[in-house]
């Protein structure tokens, strides 16, 4: 499943998937990882876990459920916008409840898109692929080769 045009192989992109249902987070992460070998996907199950990941990773794309215990997806996006290490370039929300308040809040927070459940993983993968294409045109070349090597070694280990 390849959704994106070729991107220089020196680039790597980190996607953080946040959903309080572990199965959903892992399934979506696996689907997104299939978009490109240049994507490293980090699945977590809470807003606080997501914040811990942001402390050690520069996140390019955030995909988060809105309704989670503790910290909601909207609260997570707000916290990341004020984060000292910077906010993700793209933020996507997933929710089962479409409300006018959510639409207004997502616009105020500059959320890229809101996915309403049930939503097919392919739809989210297409949005991620489009974001990656845009990022590939603007992201400076850095130490991303290590990410690609890491992803390839993980794929090899999974086949063993």
Keywords:
46% helix, 5-stranded parallel beta sheet, alpha/beta, globular, 160 residues, Rossmann fold
Principal-axis shape equals globular
The helical percent reads 40-55%
Structural class: alpha/beta
State the strand order across the main sheet: 2-1-3-4-5
Q: Averaging pLDDT over every residue, what do you get? A: 83
List the helices and strands and how they pair.
Layout: E1 13-18, H1 22-33, E2 39-44, H2 47-56, E3 61-65, H3 73-81, E4 90-95, H4 100-108, E5 113-116, H5 121-138, H6 145-159
Parallel strand pairs: 1-2, 1-3, 3-4, 4-5
Helix pairs in contact: 1-5, 2-3
Quick description:
The chain is α/β, with parallel strands linked by helices.
Explain the overall architecture.
The protein has 160 residues and is an alpha/beta fold. The protein has a single domain (13-159), classed as Rossmann fold (3-Layer(aba) Sandwich). 46% of the residues lie in helices and 17% in strands. It is built from six helices and five strands. The protein has a five-stranded parallel beta sheet with strand order 2-1-3-4-5, sandwiched between helices. Helix 1 crosses helix 5 and helix 2 (47-56) packs parallel to helix 3. The radius of gyration is 15 Å and the shape is globular. Mean pLDDT is 83; it is low at 4-10, 141-146 and 154-160.
């Amino acid at each position: 499943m390849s959704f994106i045009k070729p991107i220089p192989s020196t680039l790597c992109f980190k996607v953080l998937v946040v959903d309080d249902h572990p199965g959903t987070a892992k399934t979506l992460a696996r689907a997104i990882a299939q978009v490109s070998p240049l994507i490293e996907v980090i699945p977590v199950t809470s807003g606080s876990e997501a914040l811990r990941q942001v402390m050690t990773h520069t996140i390019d794309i955030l995909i988060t459920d809105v309704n989670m215990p503790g910290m909601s997806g909207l609260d997570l996006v707000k916290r990341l916008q004020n984060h000292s290490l910077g906010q993700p370039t793209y933020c996507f929300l997933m929710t089962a409840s479409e409300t006018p308040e959510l639409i207004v809040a997502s616009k105020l927070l500059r959320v890229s898109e809101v996915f309403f459940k049930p939503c097919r993983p392919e739809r989210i993968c297409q949005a991620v692929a489009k974001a990656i294409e845009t990022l590939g045109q603007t992201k400076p070349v850095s130490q991303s080769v290590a990410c690609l090597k890491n992803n390839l070694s993980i794929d090899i280990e999974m086949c063993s």
